[in-house]
Amino acid sequence: MGLFEKLSTKYPDEKSESHLAPDGQSPPPYSSASSADFSTPSSHSSAPGTTLKLPQSFWLDYRWHSSTSFIGAEKGARDFAVTVPSRMNCFAHRAITLRDGSAKDSPALVSVKGQKGSMGRRSVISLPSTGEKDPGQDIVGAFGPGGSSKGFDVTLENGTVEHFEWRRSMGDEVKNLESGFQGWKLVRMDSPYTLSGGQEEFPQGYTSDGREIVAVAAYPKMFRNSPRFEFLGSGARGEMGVRFELVAAISFVRMYEIAMQQANGAAASASASASASASAAAVTA
Questions:
Q1: Cβ atoms 90, 67 nearer than 8 A
Q2: CA–CA separation, 115 vs 93, rounded Å?
Q3: Separation of alpha carbons 43 and 100, rounded Å
Q4: Stretch among 6-20, 85-99, 109-123, 169-183 having the lowest mean pLDDT
């Protein structure tokens, strides 16, 4: 059974969902403003309601011709390094690694690579062990730009397993993040803040089926500017822990790389087709 079929079985009729916020209260207000203090690359604010490890909003300073790119709370900042061993094979089975610092040899926080035998349709996210109480975790998911579903499970620090799904989006969350960009939204399928279905309108920060949006990513057409990422809702309040933040961020980087690969492949194919047509026209002229 494929991932899409599994999701359909788990959620057979989303319009019949009637889950509300804990204790029947309205969900916490949607917020896209960051209040975290990132004075050093790996520091985070201990104030309640903020992200725990990564900036609530960050830019990916993607460097195609280098093995090292950077994540920063401000555009051009180098708060965390993102390394790829070889750009010649970065879309296959070489791991993309998010590091705890700006140096390319900083400790690894999380990595992702294509799953062997899946033809690029699935990826494996690896969280390294941090000790006996945290043996590490491998997460297999489908979150490339194509396909009908981009879901994966994450075992959070409290031991619960939650399902998340990346969806394409050009909604308000993407528009508010960066005008003129296209992108994706990360949906928390098992959120305690899920709204009941059947409503004509849902508040900002929720999908049309009442699911909570916990992160959003936006990138420009033609990939000429840096993409941007932001945690939202419970994702921005640090409720799901550091593991969730790392998995969300590295899956976004993976999706962006695959999107660029597909765009470059389409451009190369179009160029080859145009050249072939021109050559054929010259022969028959």
A1: no
A2: 7
A3: 10
A4: 6-20
